[in-house]
Description:
Elements: H1 2-9, H2 16-26, E1 36-39, H3 49-52, E2 56-59, E3 65-75, E4 81-88, E5 102-108, E6 119-124, E7 135-147, H4 154-157, H5 159-188, E8 192-193, E9 196-197, H6 202-233, H7 239-269, H8 282-289, H9 299-312, H10 316-328, H11 336-358, H12 367-387, H13 394-400
Amino acid sequence: xxxxxxKILKTMQDEPIFVKAYENLTSRDAQVxxxxxxxxxxxxxxxxxxxxxxxxxxxxxxxxxxxxxxKWFSSATDADMSITLAxxxxxxxQTIQGNKGLSLFYLETKDSQGNFNNIxxxxxxxxxxxxxxxxxxxxxxxxxxxxxxxxxRGIPGISAMLTISRLHNVIASVGNMRRVVNLAVDYAHKxxxxxxxxxxxxxxxxTLARLEVETRAATLxxxxxxxxxxxxxxxxxxDDQVHLLRLLTPIAKLYTxxxxxxxxxxxxxxxxxQGYMEDTGLPLLLRDSQVLPIWEGTTNILxxxxxxxxxxxxxxNLESFYKTIHSKIKVAVxxxxxxxxxxxxxxxxxxxxxxxxxNRNELEMAARDFSxxxxxxxxxxxxxxxxxxxxxxxxxxxxxxx
Length: 402
């Protein structure tokens, strides 16, 4: 959220208050550094912020706004500032409903004396996990804020922030998976059962291998998304890469989040009863991972976002997907131990694109499976590309064909 807020404020360097906020958000001095929240969700809304936002912004004589509303799920309540949505009220006291009525605002949570900016904490959420990150219900009762989007362009204004926060969600998913797998592998080399270390039992070794492949694939997906984002951010991306970034961002977020929960659950099982004991710290890994499919859009919401991206690009992002798949496996396809798997990935890419073309009326119902298929095909191509590199190892090739 802090990274995303900095991305938005970086483009608004004509106002001193935004310049100061950006400097605080990007400072490496712990005494100066700020964190940012992201307060979008309200009681009526959830993911439907366009129709569920009931916070109102009244313009003041000095150009600032006073916000009135109830934020239902306010992450990073202890942040120094936040980005939030509200409906501006015109001179006649009227508002516009839907997307066109929402604008994006910047507010600081406290004033220079350390007093809350007309923000009342109603209660802290009693969450399943991520309890170290306070989430609260907040009443905004005249909180001073400043508009940072064009009038009625609040939702488009948060698109850059969502891209970054979804990338961070992918990073968190991959990090959680790697931690669980590393702990399980280490434990397997030390825990003895039936006369030998459990890593020496073929079935358990296979279980760990499957977890390792999932984690490797997710790691490559994360790095690919970060590469595309970096190219786009520095105006170096080709048209295909821009289309691919738009398509892969929701796909990577939704799929790695689901992987993280599954890997955490399977990883805990690798410890037997100890994985269920709170004093080992292991159950925390499962609880904290469960929020990853929920943050920044649930699996179904993001699956529908994938369909929107295909529709808005007139299918160009699927063309970019198809071309990129074949570009990534062009070396591996000529390697005997990888070629047959390249054929499978290539055929998968053909099939999923044809499915989208031939089943447009059923795509919404199939959106989740469609997104999963795109994720698996792309991850397969990434594994094969990695295994075909001149410095790859035998383990890389083994992972690619599993």
